[in-house]
Each structure stands twice: as structure tokens, then as C-alpha cells.
């Protein structure tokens, strides 16, 4: 019986969904949404905060500040509340309403940037705001998830070994790329492992992370409007880019079987299924990471009016995989 006294002490790490009956190909989806912050970002948040505490950067009168599209902000809000720090989250107008309300419920302050930087997008504008704040008052402590090695180290120490323990014969791992903390931590871990694992990064179309032109992206979590400073492409074997329409279809296909996941899971699953369709290697052991669950997206990805406005009336017309078609 797990009994805890701090919210970050619990994090389900052994739960996988086998997607064969839903998509027709075997893929084990590691569920990272079962903790009190509701996402994989809890791992990066606790690693970065506790490293800053050990180094004496965080003191009782510090004010944590971070730029986040939602999930890291919720995780930091939870940790700040538990440890007694103040926290200010700088986000933008694409942040989910529920993420903002969660941060406020946990006692954090939320600042929303509504004007994008002409060349560096919303992210550039958010970072400029955080920098100006830190320059104005030295009580502000910016953990900087985009550059902090604690972000990837969390996954090198935890997510990579968790997967390796359950799948000692793993062949391919699909990982969504946002800040690339999850990607770089897992990729570094498996580079040192006892057998080769193919590391496939999944990015959203319109992101500039692996090159290419910036484009409209409405689903938070994956993709960047600047190149992620943590990214070292020498650890990445392949990159798949997924259109948002495909992300949405994958999310709805999962939801119709009772699994309500977040947008980035739809992206990773769609990219992984496409890769598995192209490779068709018998006996392959494949794992993908699901960063969060779907409740934070009820007013966007799971709302028909929002979908039709952005992607057209036929966005949800797709064929189901049935037992007969497998
Ligand atoms: C829902 C979701 N998916 C994926 C990611 C990407 O993870 P990373 O920043 O480790 O690349 C994030 C990051 O915030 C996220 O919130």
C-alpha cells in the first residue's frame, strides 16, 4: 500500500497500454500521466528544483519563475506548494484553460503573453519576459527547462531505466520532442545500454526543432519555434513529423476505445504506427511514451466545434481498425 506525505512522492512508472487491438500493430505505450501533476513533467520539475536546492540557488524567499505551455507549470505549482515556494508561470494564449486554472488552484501566479515575437514566436516572447523579470529582482529563480541539464537527467535517471527494466529486449523507442528533455535523457541512457535501441524522435509539423519551416501549431506539448538548446542530434536515429490532423485522429481513435490521452500522445502514436507500417519487422519490441492524459484537452482536441473551426468538417472521418480487419 503506497502511503505518501508529499504529492511528488507518487508516480506510477510501470503502466503500459498494448495498442495492438486498437491500431493493428503491437506498440507498448508507457503512461506517464498517473501522478498528482498529471504528466511526465513532474520528473523534470522535481529534478530541477532539488538540484537548485542542493546548490543553494533556491532559498525560502526565492520566487520560482518558468516559461511553460502548461504541464511543467502545473508540476512546478504542485512542488512549489508542497515545499513552500512562490511560483510565477509565464505562458501564452495557447495554454490550456484547465492548466491555467490548475496552477492558480495550487496557489501560483500565471502571466499570459498574447503577442508573439516576429521571428522567435510565442516562446521567444515568453523567454524575453522571464529574462526581464530576473534582471529586475534577484529573488526570481529561473530553472530554464530549455537549457537546464536536470531536464534530461531526470529521464536518464528514471524514464530510461524504467523502460529498460520492463523491456529487456527493446528494439525501438518512440519519443515526442518538446524541450527534448525526455528524448535526450532516454537516448543517452539507451546509448550506454547492453543492446542497440533505435531512438525515433516524433515532432509536430510546423516545429523547427529538426530544421524546416515554422508553421501553425495549435496543440501544446511537442514542437518548438526555436531550436531546443538541449538537443544533440547525434543521439537520434530518426525523426518523424506528424501533421496535427493525424494527431487528432489518433487521439480520437484511442478515446473511442476508452483511452483518453493528451495531444502529444496522439502525435507519438500516429508517428509510431506510421513507422511500424513502413517497417513491418516481425517480433519487434516497440515502446512509445504517452506524456499525459486527455482531460486537459476537453475544450480543444475533444471538442468538435474547436476541431472543425481549425481543421475542417471532415477531420474526424476515419476508418476504425476492427478485429476483422487485423
Ligand atoms: C503533453 C506534453 N507532451 C510532451 C512534452 C515534451 O516533453 P519534453 O519537453 O521532455 O521534450 C511536454 C512538455 O512539456 C508535454 O507537456
TrEMBL record:
Pfam families: PALP (PF00291). Keywords: Pyridoxal phosphate, Transferase. Its cofactor is pyridoxal 5'-phosphate. Gene3D superfamilies: 3.40.50.1100. Residues 22-291 form the Tryptophan synthase beta chain-like PALP domain. InterPro entries: Cys_Synth/Cystath_Beta-Synth, SbnA, TrpB-like_PALP, TrpB-like_PALP_sf. CDD domains: CBS_like. The keyword Transit peptide does not apply. It comes from the Bacteria. PANTHER family: CYSTATHIONINE BETA-SYNTHASE (PTHR10314). NCBIfam families: PLP_SbnA_fam. Homodimer. This is 2,3-diaminopropionate biosynthesis protein SbnA. It comes from Streptomyces lonegramiae.
Amino acid at each position: 500500500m503506497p502511503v505518501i506525505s508529499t504529492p511528488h512522492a507518487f508516480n506510477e512508472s510501470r503502466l503500459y497500454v498494448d495498442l495492438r487491438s486498437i491500431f493493428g500493430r503491437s506498440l507498448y505505450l508507457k503512461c506517464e500521466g498517473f501522478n498528482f501533476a498529471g504528466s511526465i513533467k513532474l520528473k523534470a520539475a522535481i529534478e530541477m528544483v532539488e538540484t537548485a536546492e542542493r546548490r543553494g540557488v533556491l532559498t525560502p524567499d526565492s520566487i520560482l519563475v518558468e516559461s511553460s505551455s502548461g504541464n511543467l507549470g502545473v508540476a512546478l505549482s504542485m512542488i512549489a506548494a508542497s515545499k513552500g515556494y512562490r511560483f510565477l508561470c509565464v505562458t501564452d494564449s495557447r495554454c490550456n484553460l484547465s492548466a491555467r486554472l490548475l496552477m492558480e488552484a495550487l496557489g501560483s501566479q500565471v502571466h499570459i503573453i498574447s503577442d508573439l515575437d516576429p521571428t522567435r514566436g510565442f516562446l521567444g516572447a515568453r523567454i524575453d519576459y522571464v529574462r526581464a523579470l530576473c534582471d529586475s529582482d534577484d529573488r526570481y529563480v529561473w530553472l530554464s527547462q530549455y537549457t537546464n541539464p536536470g531536464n534530461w537527467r531526470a529521464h536518464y535517471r528514471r524514464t530510461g531505466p524504467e523502460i529498460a527494466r520492463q523491456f529487456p529486449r527493446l528494439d525501438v523507442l518512440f519519443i515526442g520532442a518538446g524541450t527534448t528533455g525526455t528524448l535526450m535523457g532516454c537516448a543517452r541512457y539507451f546509448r550506454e545500454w547492453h543492446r542497440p535501441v533505435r531512438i525515433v524522435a516524433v515532432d509536430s509539423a510546423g516545429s523547427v526543432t529538426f530544421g524546416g519551416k515554422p508553421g501553425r501549431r495549435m496543440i501544446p506539448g511537442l514542437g518548438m519555434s526555436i531550436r531546443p538548446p538541449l538537443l544533440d542530434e547525434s543521439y537520434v536515429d530518426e525523426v518523424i513529423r506528424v501533421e496535427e490532423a493525424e494527431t487528432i485522429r489518433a487521439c480520437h481513435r484511442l478515446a473511442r476505445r476508452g483511452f483518453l490521452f493528451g495531444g502529444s500522445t496522439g502525435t507519438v502514436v500516429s508517428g509510431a504506427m506510421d513507422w511500424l507500417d513502413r517497417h513491418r519487422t516481425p517480433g519487434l519490441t516497440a515502446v512509445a511514451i504517452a506524456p499525459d492524459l486527455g482531460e486537459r484537452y476537453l475544450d480543444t482536441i475533444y471538442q468538435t466545434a474547436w476541431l472543425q473551426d481549425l481543421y475542417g468538417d471532415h477531420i474526424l472521418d476515419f476508418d476504425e481498425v476492427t478485429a476483422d480487419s487485423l
